[in-house]
Amino acid sequence: MSGSADSGAGREQRAGGRDTTRPRGGRWPDGWPQPVPAGRAARLGVYAVLLVLGVVAGVAGSLVQSGWFPGGLLLALAGAVGLFWGGGKLCRTRAGAAVPAAGWAVTVVLLTTARPEGDFLFGAGIGSYVFLLGGMLAAVMCATIALPAPPVPGHKYR
């Protein structure tokens, strides 16, 4: 099986046998997915926007889920899952999914607490529990799903 044209000649390897094809200047090899955006300050700005969108999705979902049952519940959960999954795909990191999920979860949990006047936003029906638990389950799934591994430069797949 040594008949391949690229047998790894010319590559540097460390003492542990790890390939060092990634340049030290911080640039990613061609074909590797880069975090979007590449700058640290811009990425933190994207995370801040995703956090605010998570809060907005939590408030909107809590209002819609009981208003148009069962369609509103499905719409609220679909919106939350779309935000979590989209944040992860946009940033290409798990934090991209976890940040809006954290904003959503904190908002929804704060909306479930009773106010001093005795009022609260969530009813005691099954839809509220499905929204809370289903959204949290979706947040965990989207934040912990395995992202595809970046391709190995020079490796030929069969």
Automatic annotation (TrEMBL):
Entry-linked InterPro entries: DUF6113 (IPR046095)
Which portions of the sequence form the region Disordered? 1-34
Pfam families membership: DUF6113
Record's keyword terms, sorted? Membrane, Transmembrane, Transmembrane helix
The Basic and acidic residues compositionally biased stretches are: 9-22
User: Which spans are transmembrane here?
Assistant: 44-63, 69-88, 95-114, 126-149
Q: What is this protein called?
A: Integral membrane protein
UniProt organism field: Streptomyces daqingensis
